């Protein structure tokens, strides 16, 4: 049997894992919920860098790796690329297309955290949808601002920060309610692509609010690249079927 390792942590990764039978592996970094309804094995935690991943691929006799990590999980994608090259294991990747600005959008690109801070200096009620990164900067919030930070798990805030723990998908009505409750006047987002978290962009467009968009990292090439989980799973199912003949 040729074993597949899916590097997940996204809805795309989970959708692929749900299509895998027993004997294959779905890997999570351990930051989100661990699915309990998969036929394949679930592995939680890091690999110990590139060398550790190479050892894992060889020890577990992995014949194909599917990188379905988040578009901003650049280090894991780079490690996967290097490890697969070293272990001579093919690498496939799901590369979700980035969102594109539409008529009425006011997007301001930012290359990094420093760029984000520079672009939101004139605003009072920013909404951060970057995950955990803003939590490391709670002590740096200007007296003129109150941050709303949405991430997956509950964390304590402070006098100038409200932490909202929520997991997508998010709809328009829910996003409108959040914007109203928090008094949002600017949105800070990763350009993650996909539909699960896109509603915030539509609400910002409705209200004429600026969106500061963190630039996507450059990811390494893969042997095959797919735009979505469905096409990746179709190709993977075909690959598994033909490899068993």
UniProtKB/TrEMBL annotation:
PROSITE patterns: COBK_CBIJ
Superkingdom of the organism of origin: Bacteria
Keyword entries, A-Z: Cobalamin biosynthesis, Oxidoreductase
Keyword presence, Nucleotide-binding: no
Source species: Caballeronia cordobensis (Burkholderia cordobensis)
InterPro entries: Precorrin-6x_reduct
Recorded GO MF terms: precorrin-6A reductase activity
Any one GO BP annotation for this protein: cobalamin biosynthetic process
Name by which UniProt lists this protein: Cobalt-precorrin-6x reductase
Pathway(s) this gene product operates in, as recorded in its UniProt entry: Cofactor biosynthesis; adenosylcobalamin biosynthesis
Entry annotated with the keyword Metal-binding: no
PANTHER family: COBALT-PRECORRIN-6A REDUCTASE
Signal peptide: none
């Amino acid at each position: 049997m040729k074993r597949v390792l899916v590097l997940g942590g996204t809805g795309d990764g989970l959708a692929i894992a749900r299509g895998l039978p027993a004997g294959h592996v779905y890997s999570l970094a351990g930051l989100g919920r661990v699915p309990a309804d998969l036929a394949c094995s679930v592995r939680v935690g890091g690999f110990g860098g590139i060398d550790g991943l190479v050892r894992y691929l060889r020890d577990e006799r992995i014949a194909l790796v599917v990188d379905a990590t988040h578009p901003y999980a650049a280090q894991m994608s780079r490690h996967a690329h290097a490890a697969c090259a070293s272990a001579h294991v093919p690498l496939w990747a799901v590369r979700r297309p980035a969102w594109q600005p539409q008529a009425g959008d006011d997007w301001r690109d930012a290359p990094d955290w420093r760029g984000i801070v520079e672009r939101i200096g004139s605003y009072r009620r920013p909404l951060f949808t970057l995950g955990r990164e803003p939590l490391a900067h709670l002590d740096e919030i200007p007296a003129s601002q109150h941050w709303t930070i949405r991430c997956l798990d509950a964390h304590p805030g402070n006098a100038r920060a409200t932490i909202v723990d929520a997991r997508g998908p998010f709809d328009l009505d829910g996003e409108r309610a959040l914007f109203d409750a928090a008094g949002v006047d600017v949105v800070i987002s990763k350009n993650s692509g996909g539909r699960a978290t896109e509603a915030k962009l539509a609400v910002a467009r409705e209200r004429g609010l600026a969106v500061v968009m963190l630039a996507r990292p450059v990811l390494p090439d893969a042997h095959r690249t797919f735009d979505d989980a469905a096409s990746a799973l179709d190709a993977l199912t075909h690959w598994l079927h033909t490899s068993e003949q």
